[in-house]
Amino acid sequence: MKQDLLTFSNWTPEAMHKLLNLAVEIKQSPSSYSNVLAGKSVVALFEKPSLRTRVSFDIGINRLGGHMVYLDSQGGKLAGREDAVDMAANLACWADAIVARVFSHNTLEQFSLASKVPVVNALCDKYHPCQALADYLTVFERFGKTQGITMAYIGDGNNVTHSLLIAGALLGCNQVVVTPEGHECDAEIVAHAKKLAEQTGATIVESHDVSAANGADVIYADTWLSMGDETPLADIKAKFMPYQVNEALMESTGASYVMHCQPAHRDLEITGSLIDSDKSLLMQQAENRMHGQNAILTQLLSA
Ligand code: CP
Ligand code: NVA
């Protein structure tokens, strides 16, 4: 039966570790995996803009011996010219997998039902699993483990935060999530992550106070306004500025590294000087997008 990757929510710690190990293996021995997608085609469908996800899938698929067809949303949401289910069923007639970046998680669920080939979530309103896998690969490379490491996410509780919580819970990585009031994570997703964390002993703490991040190994930032959020920056800037990830915060928390999924907004959610500093893991994360996604495709397409 075909397997999708819409979220890691229904994964086991063992499966999550196995996927992370596969990403390490593919990164270390790319030539051993250069034919795993030979003769296969992947359609990548984007309702929202992308730099990292689009390019890392395209080049990554090429390195696995496969071929990617990029489709943008042709100026609007996917549904309109035809229903999402019909679009997915058509794509599955030709493609071996569908990668999709969409506004609504519901669209991915429809794709999953209608498509006989695997569907991979390349970001939706609720989750960004490919990002989380690359991020924990980065943590693993830096610390030699994910179990017992503490990551503190500071900013808007969003799709990236949700996937970090879920995957982190499975990998035994402790999470501190610090948000301004009114910008907390989805309560159901946090509750689910806490349930998953019972299997690994990982802790999850939510706070509105940045001092909750004291003692963290890694600080993580993301944009204050996710794609599709039309709130004017001026309306939230004063509220978010105390949550800026900067050198003073790195000093007060004692964290060794800073992470950001990018695109980053210099001197808003993170200072430009910190991005450029030796504490920054941003480019390692970006590189690891490709290795993580290649592990996902290798696993789904050889299932
Ligand atoms: N981090 C990430 O998903 O970047 P893009 O939006 O550029 O793909
Ligand atoms: N939270 C951000 C992530 C971008 C990669 C967004 O959804 O726009």
UniProtKB/TrEMBL annotation:
It comes from the Bacteria. It is an enzyme of class 2 (transferase). GO terms for biological process: citrulline biosynthetic process; L-arginine biosynthetic process via ornithine. It catalyses: carbamoyl phosphate + L-ornithine = L-citrulline + phosphate + H(+). The keyword Transferase applies. One of its GO terms (molecular function) is ornithine carbamoyltransferase activity. InterPro entries: Asp/Orn_carbamoyltranf_P-bd, Asp/Orn_carbamoylTrfase, Asp/Orn_carbamoylTrfase_sf, Asp_carbamoyltransf_Asp/Orn-bd, Orn/put_carbamltrans. Residues 4-140 form the Aspartate/ornithine carbamoyltransferase carbamoyl-P binding domain. Keywords: Transferase. Its EC number is 2.1.3.3. SUPFAM superfamilies: Aspartate/ornithine carbamoyltransferase (SSF53671). The keyword Transferase applies. Residues 147-298 form the Aspartate/ornithine carbamoyltransferase Asp/Orn-binding domain. NCBIfam families: orni_carb_tr (TIGR00658), PRK00779.1 (NF001986), PRK14805.1 (NF011380). Belongs to the aspartate/ornithine carbamoyltransferase superfamily. OTCase family. This is Ornithine carbamoyltransferase. It comes from Alteromonas stellipolaris.
